[in-house]
Design a protein that fits this description.
Number of helices of chain A: 5
Structural class of chain A: alpha/beta
Shape of chain A: globular
CATH topology of the largest domain in chain A: Rossmann fold
Number of strands of chain A: 15
Structural class of chain B: alpha/beta
Number of domains of chain A: 2
Largest sheet of chain B: 8 strands, parallel, barrel
Number of strands of chain B: 16
CATH superfamily of chain B: Aldolase class I
Distance between the termini of chain A: 28 Å
Oligomer: heterodimer
Helix content of chain B: 25-40%
Strand order of the largest sheet of chain B: 3-4-7-8-9-10-15-16
Distance between the termini of chain B: 28 Å
CATH class of chain B: Alpha Beta
Order of helices and strands of chain A: EEEEEHEEHEEEHEHEEEHE
Strand order of the largest sheet of chain A: 10-9-8-7-11-12-15
CATH topology of chain B: TIM Barrel
Radius of gyration of chain A: 18 Å
Chain lengths: 268, 303
């Protein structure tokens, strides 16, 4: 990390951003769009920001959210906020016009595919956000990008129409109300054709990512996952969000959140 | 502009605000947010003789106005510090203070001897108060006899400024402070975290992998203030106060209670730019109350 002392490109900052949009996407998901007065730092899929929940004194720490998309020209980026607890709940009640304190940009993003790669993006829960960003920003033709999204029911899926031009989308639900019935790992595109992909990217609940990682390892496919371990700071000083890797404990916030599955100890 | 410089024995701080160990890495991690040269000093992440992996995840739990941590001194060891970190920081003009940890008296001494060779490290903070390690750490800081033993041994090999970081998990912190003063400590810093725990009622399990951890943040501030005040009246060496300082007013309260300098810890996680506004806020407080120097208000609590 010290070699970067002189050559660091992206400076991190604590920024007061303007909330310009808060759209409810389904019963527990909201899209928040934040705008910076000054130029936004470049952010890539897999990176995240740490948001202060100011209105609630009982919420002490910031809450990390993966970036769902950026719009450099308008100096905005969006977050997918799923109500999971008190912090996310308060955040979804914020109104356009409010200022929100955000630390950004944080973490290392996904490794971009090469131009000829066929990729599978697997998302569940809040993990859908970086997958949509990746689908748009990976630079591949839509026929090379396959996006598999899982949720409990149709009502738990969000509308992803905006992203459909960037790839082929597949869905699973546990009750079969949208797409194929079951988990993402039960889907036809996944089960029968995993080895056809050059790269698999996954973000979502731990059990989902572990299942995808195990299958990708068996199939010998390059696979990156984005972890969401609990953290206090987001920039590598509290050392609370560590994940065990083959080279020791690593901070998810600075050495991740994206990890190649070969670095992790999930297989053991 | 009031005079903000203070002295901890031979250690001159350009202002009384330091960042606390375990909340600012080795300086590099916060350099995007704060000009390190503007700080009174940086107390770096707890360092041990050998590398330590720390405790298992989860290591953190948010609590009412605070948090618990159970990191367990994860660090790459002193050799890594000397080889890979020190060369990069030695040219930066601030006080880089090494937080020294050990499982045995011998380890504390050996580590201190290595740090003593580094010209640009003007002080160490002897950590006899880490609540998250199985051996050493807090065990040394909870009895006068063991605290005396480790301070005496380290004092023999260390001529620069020796700060001893005290645990609040004791019956009488003033007694421990007097004990380390009697063995030659130049300063005491307090408080380290309070031993606490968090439980998930849904799963009926502890939140932390280690069951217990160290509580920090505004939740502990009133207790920390009381302890700083007690210790200030028990010793003649300078006291460095910490415990839940979130802003300049909190910092001023610690100074009024008797702290010569303060450390900002958990607040760094929420706003790593906060040391700059705390320094500015102390200056405003002094100006507004017509003090020429911060030294005039140390321990000036009106009772």
């Amino acid at each position: 990390m010290w070699s970067k002392w002189e050559i660091r490109g992206m400076k991190k900052a604590v920024s007061e951003l303007l909330l310009i949009e808060n759209t409810q996407l389904n019963h527990d998901n909201f899209r928040l769009v934040l705008q910076s007065e000054t130029e936004l730092p470049q952010m890539v899929p897999g990176q995240f920001v740490n948001v202060q929940i100011r209105q609630a004194t009982e919420i002490f720490l910031r809450r990390p959210f993966s970036v769902m998309d950026t719009d450099v020209k308008n100096r905005t980026f969006s977050l997918l906020v799923k109500i999971l607890g008190r912090g996310s709940k308060v955040l979804t009640t914020c109104q356009p016009g409010e200022k929100i304190s955000v630390i950004l940009p944080l973490g290392k993003g996904f490794t971009m595919p090469s131009t000829t790669d066929k990729v599978l993006l697997v998302g569940g829960g809040s993990g859908v956000a970086p997958m949509l960003f990746l689908a748009r920003a990976c630079g591949l033709n839509p026929d090379q990008v396959h996006v598999l999204l899982g949720a409990r029911t149709q009502a738990d899926h969000i509308d992803v129409r905006l992203y459909q031009p960037f790839g082929k989308f597949y869905y699973t639900t546990e009750n079969g109300s949208l797409g194929e019935k079951g988990f993402v790992t039960n889907h036809t595109v996944y089960k029968s054709k995993l080895a056809d992909f050059d790269r698999v990217y996954a973000c979502g609940p731990g059990p989902m990512m572990k299942a995808v990682a195990a299958d990708a390892a068996t199939a010998g496919v390059f696979c990156e996952v984005s972890l969401e371990n609990m953290m206090a700071c987001g920039f590598g000083v509290c050392l609370c969000c560590v994940e065990k890797t083959l080279s020791g404990n690593k901070c998810v916030c600075t050495e991740g959140p994206v990890f190649n599955i070969n670095e992790l100890t999930w297989q053991n | 502009m009031a005079e903000l410089a203070v002295k901890i024995k031979d250690l001159r701080l350009k202002n009384p605000v330091l960042t606390a160990s375990g909340t600012c890495g080795f300086g590099e991690e916060i350099a995007d947010f704060v000009d390190l040269r503007a700080l009174g000093g940086v107390v770096m992440k707890g360092t041990t003789l050998k590398p330590r992996e720390g405790n298992d995840y989860p290591r953190m739990a948010e609590t009412a106005s605070g948090m618990l941590n159970a990191v367990g001194l994860q660090n790459k060891g002193v050799n890594n510090f000397v080889k890979n970190i020190y060369p990069n920081i030695k040219a930066i003009s601030t006080n880089f203070i090494v937080n020294v940890n050990g499982s045995t008296v011998e380890e504390y001494v050996e580590l201190t001897e290595i740090i003593n060779e580094l010209d640009q490290i003007p002080a160490i903070e002897l950590n006899i108060s880490c609540p998250n390690v199985k051996e050493g750490g807090m065990a040394f800081g909870v009895s006068c006899a063991s605290a005396e033993r480790v301070v005496k041994a380290v004092r023999k090999v260390y001529g620069k400024t020796l700060i001893v970081k005290l645990s609040p998990n004791v019956t009488d912190i003033a007694e421990i402070a007097r004990a380390v003063e009697s063995e030659g400590a130049d300063s005491v810093s307090l408080v380290n975290t309070f031993l606490g725990m968090a439980i998930d009622a849904k799963t009926r399990k502890p939140v932390l992998s280690t069951v217990t951890g160290g509580l920090s943040g505004p939740a502990i501030k009133p207790i920390a203030l009381r302890m700083v005040w007690q210790v200030y009246h028990a010793v003649t060496i300078p006291v460095i106060g910490m415990g839940g300082i979130m802003n300049a007013t909190d910092a001023v309260e610690f100074i009024l209670a008797g702290a010569t300098a303060v450390q900002v810890g958990t607040a760094m996680f929420i706003d790593p730019t906060v040391p700059a506004s705390i320094i500015e806020g102390i200056d405003h407080y002094l100006d507004a109350n017509q003090y020429r120097s911060v030294n005039e208000i140390i321990g000036s609590l009106q009772i």
